[in-house]
């Protein structure tokens, strides 16, 4: 992603509104489940789970960037083709 698009993407992330009660509830329960699971694991297993969660977060971030780029390109394409 070039610097201009990266700047737009970061700006959008910084101003993202996540006030949806369902989203907040799901985040809360996911954190509770994760912490409960961590308590049942050995230290080595917990480290593996944390590593997995970190790698999943990286993959999710890359997927979000790819989705943003696709939507941006689609918007450019539609904007170009809608002109008389």
Question: How are the elements arranged and paired?
Answer:
Layout (H helix, E strand, L loop, with lengths): L2 H12 L6 H20 L2 H39 L3
Q: How would you portray this structure in words?
A:
There is one protein chain. This protein has 84 residues and is mostly helical. It has one domain. It has three helices and no strands. The chain is elongated and about 65 Å long. The mean pLDDT is 91.
Hey, roughly how much beta strand do the residues contain? under 5%
Helical content (DSSP H or I, runs of 4+): over 70%
Low-confidence region ranges: none
Major sheet size, sense and barrel closure:
none
- The tally of domains stands at 1
Structural class by SSE content = mainly alpha
String of helices and strands: HHH
Shape call: elongated
> N- to C-terminal separation?
30 Å
Integer average pLDDT? 91
- Specify the number of helices: 3
Give the C-alpha Rg: 19 Å
> How many DSSP E strands?
0
Notable characteristics:
84 residues; mainly alpha; 3 helices; 0% strand; elongated
Task: Describe, in short, the structure shown.
The protein has helices spanning 3-14, 21-40, 43-81. With 84 residues, the chain is mostly helical.
